[in-house]
Specification:
The chain is 29% helix and 14% strand. It is of the alpha+beta class.
Length: 123
Amino acid sequence: MERGGIVLTTRRPAWLGAAALLIASWIVVAALSLQVRAGTEVVAVAFPPWWGAQRALLAVASANAAIVRMTGMPTLLVVRPDRADGLQRLHAAGAWLTLDPRAIAACLASDDDLGVGDDRRRQ
């Protein structure tokens, strides 16, 4: 008669499924809230983070898009793409994402020439 070996089984922690569901739902909500709406004239464009500001600006110019605003991050720009296939040209120029600019308002520089966020002008 042979002795039976003990088989050890490992169990996943009970919280792992809930954490995976939480992360997946956060990604879906972020994707839905950041996507560009149909008919939007101004979009935020994210280029690879290792690109410099000069390369991102050249990519926007090659896509025939007008720069509306610079942000605090040099590779995140708010642009007005050309009406004829403007978003496709931006992606072909190297853009990773096109986002709703209202969704990335926290990344925008607050010291612009319009005085947005400047409390000194109210006094």
